[in-house]
Design brief:
alpha+beta, 531 residues, 7-stranded mixed β-sheet, single chain, Dipeptide-binding Protein, domain 1, 5-stranded mixed β-sheet
Length: 531
Amino acid sequence: MTITRRTLGAGILSVGAAATFAHRARASREQPTHGGTLRWAYYPEPSAIIAINTSSGTGSSIGTKINEGLLTYDFNMVPRPVLATSWTVSPDGLRYRFRLREGVKWHDGTDFTSADVAFSIERLGQAHPRGRATFAHVQRIETPDAHTAEFVLSQPTPYLLFALSGSESPMVPKHIYETFKPADQPKLAQTIGTGPFILREWVPGSHLLFERNPGYWDAPKPYLDKIILRPILDSSARGAALETGEIDISANPVALADLARLKENPNLIVDTTTYAYSGPQNQLFFNYDNPIFKDRRVRLAIAHALDLKAIVNTVYYGYAQASPSPVSLALPKFYDPKVQAWSYDPALAERLLDDAGHPKGPGGTRFKLRLTVNPFLVTNFGDYVRQAVRRIGIDVELQRYDLATFLTTVYRDRAFDLVIESLSNTFDPTPGVQRAYWSKNIQIGLPFSNAAHYANPEVDRLLEAAAVEPDEARRRDLFFAFQEYIHEDVASVDLVAPAGVIVANKRVKNFATTADGLNSSFADLYLAPHA
């Protein structure tokens, strides 16, 4: 076997990030300080927080402080050891052998072993929206001893080595998780990991309390004593809490119109980097259970009613880029620049609807649709889309929900017609994009799967071929063909790739030390002493 540690093109989308990287560089040269409590404002209200069966933002950002992955990735997407200390890949790409870190214990004192790795990968393949595709070709995991795990694949999986972070593929304790169903999240007492922090309290609507793991394998980390996460649902309240020092850090914390003011605050740092692991993308999906969307002219009319430049400028205040393909432009290796946004042309949209047999009725309305919006998105996104399609005679009922209700409405009850989603492409299109268009990922109740119930044999063929193609150039060609097919079919309307926004007190050091950004474990984070 040969050691394989190649670099994946990171494709970092950045808006004004130079000062941020300088800040991180300065922080890394300082001597970390032990102690203190990090006060973390969060939006929206957390639901599922361990990413074993969800790709929600709560799982990716909160659960990583508790449950770690086998690997992490530097800013250039080079794999680094975490629970695995070394790895080898066979020349044919069908065997991945991991040597596991010794002496690691779960928070309840039980040893972390290869049996936990085998169980975690199996559970991710069963229940995680992206894991179903990521680990589809893992036939079995051999565990010759407690500290060796070997993945045996039926076909090459060229992205597998980059899917093993705690935010994407957390390792969970077999002796706990085998006691409940794959779709269930653990209760508080069962929420244990190997990570730097232990979840002690979870009071919905109030806070989550994390305490330092005194037995953490990477001593003397972590540096913090505690983390208090507070859900603050109002953006103005989050901004005020950051400005007064009541809160130390928050992601996507304030109305984007307020960022210019916060950048002038000498006590705050505003980080608008989009980290390489996230592959941001916002999409409009159609519910194909509604027969009105069987007609491509209706879908195309809606596409022509949306102005991507206006979304960038008025919805995101410039903190985004138009990204009209199902593969985000934040993944330049696979993004097809030939896919161009449909022209903003409301008059053409109206003609298409007329031709499709939907003339305007009383009041100028053709028909009515229900529009649902992922609550992670900026609040005025739904308002923009509603106004845009109303201009062409489509009445829209805008449905605003908390995260739990949104997931139930869209993915279980399917009580929607249009949904504005934020399905991250992550680091690769197979785990990040395939889930939304692959007919085999139509799973009632599975969050962030194929919400549209889109099914197309040619799209399935292209996605399945790309997933196992070891030649990078041929794989790229397959993804280009997929993007062109989806775009021409108007299977969805891809919109923008938003920049990430983190606002933190300048005392908070090392809040982003990996390609995960704020989804890292916080093991390296510390609070500098007050001046």
